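To whoever is on call:

I kicked off a structure prediction for a single chain this morning and the downstream step that reads the tokens threw a length-mismatch warning. I double-checked the sequence; it's 312 residues and nothing unusual in it as far as I can see. Pasting both halves so you can look.
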Amino acid sequence: MTRISIPDDSPPVLSSSGVWPALKSRAEIEYHNTLPYSEEALVERIGDAEVVLNIRSSSRFTARVFQACPKLRLLSVWGTGTDHIDLPGAARCGVTVTNTPGVAAISIAEHALALLFAVARRIPPMDAATRTGAWERGQFVQLRGKTCGVVGYGAIGREFARLAAGIGMRPLLWTMHPERYPGVDFTGLMELYSTSDVISLHLRLSPDTENFVAQSQFERMKPGVILINTARGAIVHEASLVAALSRGRIAGAGLDVFTTEPLPREHPLTGLGNVVMTPHCAGITPEALEAGLAMAVENIWTFLNGQPARVG
């Protein structure tokens, strides 16, 4: 039987999923429901496995990890992001990397919209005040008729643009790869920044997108804009974001991702009343979870059967 290592199912999602019984019956499983907090611990957990099923992006698959695991042939990732993986290092060691593109697109897009409503209508502070007996009245943002800049046009960006249009917003679209979408009307990034009332980020984290939104980008944005980020925290220069929020350069932000996760206590973002935050959970719904885990496991059988790997 093929030996499969699951080094990081923490908090556990795989062991309680519908795919777990069949996975255990078809392979020899090395299972861990805690995180490996070092490179050495990750290598020890992988051991002699031919396949690794990666659950959490906090596990860093460096070139040294691949070099230390010569029997490893496949790294099957639950999720879309691969920024925690040294892809050239994997390729040099002959390790194929697969992921689960698109399965959480609806869930993440809905979460981005929920964050947008929460910021625009100031729902968390209004809820907190009402619970104390206060009866605050205030001006909120009506979204219908506003311009929504969608930065990134993958599966999640496309779904979010559809939802934004569905509530009466006017989507402006930008992508790094417009040639992949013939017939789609994209706008320039600077125009998107200067004219959008809402900007939602849907980019992958890479050397090209790290600190993609920093001080100069905030200065170009329309005053009063709302920023939504459900992609990766490091896409936004966090200190610049804090400064823009603190001085009112942007009206508010809805964030599901952060440069450091979990978000440290006393982080400057935690003291800002115009920020709504959630703990990198946008893609975790029962539907998305089961579909993603099923695809990650299916990618293993597809690879072992000699068929092309799924990478998105």
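Update from on-call: the warning came from a stale cache, not from the record. Cleared it. Sanity check on the structure: DSSP finds eleven helices and eleven strands in the chain.
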